[in-house]
Write a structure and sequence with these properties.
- It is built from 11 helices and 3 strands.
- The protein has helices at about 5-25, 30-60, 65-85, 90-110, 110-130, 180-190, 195-225, 235-240, 250-280, 285-295, 300-305; strands spanning about 140, 155-160, 170.
- Helix 5 (about 110-130) packs across helix 7 and helix 7 (about 195-225) packs antiparallel against helix 9.
- The termini are far apart.
Length: about 325
Amino acid sequence: MLPFDVLAVTDPLAWVLIALFGGGALAERWRPDLARYVVGAAWGLFAVFWLLLAPFFFFEQNSFVEALLALVGVPACLYAGYLLVDGRDSLFVLSRAVAVMGIIYLPAETIPLVRQLLVEHVASQTASLMSLLGYDPTLQPIGPERPAYEGFHAAFYFETPDPNHAGIVYNIIMACTGLGSMAIFAGCIAAVRAPLGRKLRALAVSISIIYVLNIIRTTFIGLAFGHQWFDGPYTPYLMTVFGESDPYMVSHIVAESVISQLLSVVALVAIAWFVIRELPELLVIIDDVAYMATGEDRDTASELGFLPDTEETVTERPTGDD
């Protein structure tokens, strides 16, 4: 257990970060010298944010991967802030993207009413698709085992053949809403300077596809878990592989952590490919990340032939001296 409530610190810190990133983005056009320091400070605080969350992910969420990624984010944020202050103005694009992502995601993460409306909407749509497929799901309030969601009408209950088993409960939570992926795409699309028509087209296609695929995903996981689609003679072996003591959880793990995550990666890559074809200006973000990792400047848009078909676009390139 951690000695203090990390989220009580990181939640308000996240709002401060969004204010700094957003304020710096607004000041960029009129006072770029001041904006560099404001956004540079935001990146420094962002490093503190991830440093605080690393032990939370490890000890509270039991997620080694998330903890490791948070620790990697600490030096990455510090380096991004340093490069921006040093004159690499192309990092303003990534900074604006972070601001928009936060504006979209933080209300649902930190305001209970917004979180409840979003979670219950996804649960309702999932229940509708299950019914359309010929199933009759039982939707009920989430119990006290999920205190952040207790009382939300977003838990699916499935009976089991075992009379000694309490039944299977599939909870819809924030991670099931797809909002994180939507926020990433929306933030990146909003951050670049490109004709409004191309930006709206990329936004409409990416968000609508993510929304529909996410409802299909939650429906598949819920039915696979509730009806034990992946229970079989191999279950004891999978329990050993996954380190799981409850055989009923095997179907959930296979459906969510194996099949759904694999297909999600494929889908997101395909969506990203479309968005980049529509908005090649986004490749400046990849160029900046590549520079931070390798120290070499690249022009990926030119290398791939993804060049804007209009002179309206202003592509932001690094302006600092190396």
